[in-house]
Amino acid sequence: MRQTTKFYAVLLCAALGFSTSIQSCKDYDDDIDSLNKRIDAVNKSLEDLKKDFGALAFVKDVKWDESTRTLTITPATGNPVTYTIADADTKDGNTQYTLETKAEGKTVTITLKNDKGEVISAPTITMPDTPAEFDGTKLTIGEKGAILYDGEPTGATLPQVTIPGMTITEIKDAAGTVIGYTIKYGDNEPVNLKLISEKLQGLVFIPDFYYQGIEAMAANTFYYKALTLPTVNANDDFSTDKATEGKTFSLTPNLVANYHLNPSNAAVSDLKKENMFFIAEDKAYTKAGAHNVEVTDFKVNKGVLTVQAGLNKGMLKDIEKDGEVTVLALQVGTKNAEGDTLITSDYAAVKAREVKNIVLADAAKGYQATEVHFVTTAAEAIANDPQFTILWDNAKGIDVAELVATHADDADSKHISLDEKASTDKIKAYGFKYKYELIGYLAGDNKTSQSAHAAMNGSILRAQTTQNGLQQAFGAEQNRSTIGRMPLVRISLIDTAANNVVAVAYIKFKITDKEEVAPVDEVLHVANFTFNDKYTVGCTPASYNFPLNWAKVEEGIYTALNMSKEEFEGEFKLEFYTDPNLEQFTNTTINAQKVTTRLGIASRKQDNTGGEMTDVLAWEVSQAEAYNIFSAGATEAKIIVRFVRENANNTKHYVYVTLTWKPAELNVEPTGAILDDANTKFTSAWFAEDKGTPGFYEVHFNVEVPKTDATCKFEKNILDVFVGQKVLISDVDKTTYPSFTADKLVKEFVFVTPDETIVSGSDDNSYKLSVSTDGLTLNATLLDQNGKETATKDAVAVLSTTTDADATNNFVTYQDNDIAKAVLNYAGHLALGKNETLTAKVQVNVVNGCDQKLDVANNTFDVKFLRPISIEATDGSLEDAKDNGSDLALKDAMQFVDWRGFEFVPDNMNYFEYYGVETIAINVDDIMLGGKKLKDVYPAARVDYSETTTDKIASGDFGTITWHNNSTALSADITIELPVEVTYKWGTFKVPVPVVVKKTIGQ
């Protein structure tokens, strides 16, 4: 005995006011005992569900997973709960129902239709005075499938099954947002789950594109030539059908804008068209008067609010033409416990966009290529191969709207897509709709139209038999006799305002017994071989070899394919780049490409083990290749090679072989350290960070010490700061890494980017420090007033190598050019803080004899380049109101010192010549008093400076300053600052020298 049960997955969704569709899953007959077990399992799951949630509960989320048959419910508080619903369905066919509601005044009509569109029942509800509007959240399902509104029967009932069957009903509101679920099993009381909706908190604009870097939406105007199409049917011969072009029309539909709701489950019931407003401004961008932008419609789907709005003609500003841009922000008014709330989105630009060349295209192939466009005449479609197939016994048919999309060109000839596919209904927002028609044509000696063997209901195409050689109404008998027929569908895009045909396409289908699959290339087998040889960073061995013996080839390839050695070698050939070396591929699919860089060498070899020659594979990886892979963090190396068989039907069959080296032991991180100790560093040459006190952070470089044969060169051997002029590398694990013993290490010094890259120059400019790619040059680039780099750039310091040095690039030479001098002379030798004395950073790199890196800790240090000479103020002073002014020899107000603090006068007069002091200058207009210019603060006073010469400077004569004041008496001493500028061998620097002007004599 057999018994039948049904499983319904019921979808309740909005149409006009509210709509519901009910879709049953596949049913099938089965043995009664097995069926009863499944029904018992369903009963148990539903009993648990009823116990947890009762007849009505408010929850956060409900999810049904058909593949695992699990129902997951997230309560208002707490964690998700999962119920496994056993499969208790049978095979009676698929029945679909639709529940539609339409409100006229206070009367709401609920119409229940079957899948053929036939009305099952149409009860009405009279709404009370309050609330005045139909509220979809109050719609539930009661016992025996009764549809209830606010707990009261509506008179509409869902179809009932004769024995226990389960329904899961998804309820959506008028905007298409899911607001609840009803779960029912047989005659048991259903469980109604209502989703909790959050209050709207924010709106985030979803840009269509970016307009000059601004998030933007398009205000489209569509241009097209109206097409005229003959009236057609599925029975007669319309094989020459095509459109006739007419005059050009334009269509400017509503603006369409999309916004993410925050939160995504915001209560859609709070959203009303009359409470939505756009605020508009012209920016650029400058503000201008507001515009009226009227919201005409909206909908919500999956947390996205789509708003349509009308625009005033000519209101849009264009950045390039007007210097302005029109921007819109959406405001939505809602209510909450505290009263009215106004939510405002971010502003987005609105760009007028002309759209032309509108065509219909294959929705599955994107929109970048024109070859995806459908043909535009019946003759072309008939001559071409069928583009899609439809099974003869597909009772529901296929939705042609899933196959079609609309493409166009914008004003810049950029190809765009107006919708992903026709079924999304997005095209309506642009003022268009699709129309689907079967168009008859005869093929061969057949007197019956190919298209008569199908019928359409809207966009649904269904194969079915003819009657007396003519098409039958949708839903007629299906029979294998229709196999091989090729119905032709004409799709038109209609301008709904003018009722013009905008674009047309013809698509030929083929009715088949099963899904027809053209012969294609195929991967028959992927053989994987793994090698676990140990890898340690080092110079030996020169390479690693991974051969496959005949046994591995036989078991991994021949046996897997159930082929003999002779069969396989006779049919499949390896792919070489040069025999015997094999090509390598990116993956193991039919679309695999040749790699751009091969890893090692894979080759064909022969193994004569057992007295029989067998082709085998071998893979050789060089030491350098292995190092590059594993030192970069990889734990395995892999290549893919393949065999190919070329078939008689022009297809290829592939057998891939993956060779993987996954070392059982990886030693790829040799380390060492440069220690801060007396065995490594000459401690007296090292300083604390930014200080003149001992430490191990930085070193200070200077010009050579004055002596008879010296020329004031600025160069240093970096190795001088290391003990014995050798860089000692400590803490290396020599046992694990024998290639990194001290005698095998190669060391080098390089510049790396310093901590402070923006530095000041003595010329009042700013510079940016950088390092050359090879690390041998420290550069400085002049910055403009906005801090941007200019084309003016020069080297500051350069590294080179001396003979027999323990490390290369050990010799640093400071450069003799204007930029190098400017950054050197910004600060004196005692100014060691941040952004004062020029500071570079040097790094010690260490490798072994085969250029493999040793990771060295504490391998960087700072180098400060000390300014060779400076000026220090002394106690010289001026006196106000002296006859003919007060004179002061500048040598009595300041003294020269070098980087060691040694004074030039009187003991080291030769320093003037050694350091090449050329000029001393004072710009008297820039003399300062109390942080302001003297001439601005006290213009009655004047300071003169009698300049000196290079020869006089060498004898200690720096010139004379004279103070004049023939005005008011000074009641107290004042201090002026002289801007002394010195030019010498290594550049120019400025030092403010303070000089006291004593109060007026006798005061």
TrEMBL record:
Keywords: Coiled coil, Signal. The keyword Signal applies. It comes from the Bacteria. Residues 1-24 form the signal peptide. Residues 25-52 form a coiled coil. This is DUF4988 domain-containing protein. The lineage of its organism: Bacteria, Pseudomonadati, Bacteroidota, Bacteroidia, Bacteroidales.
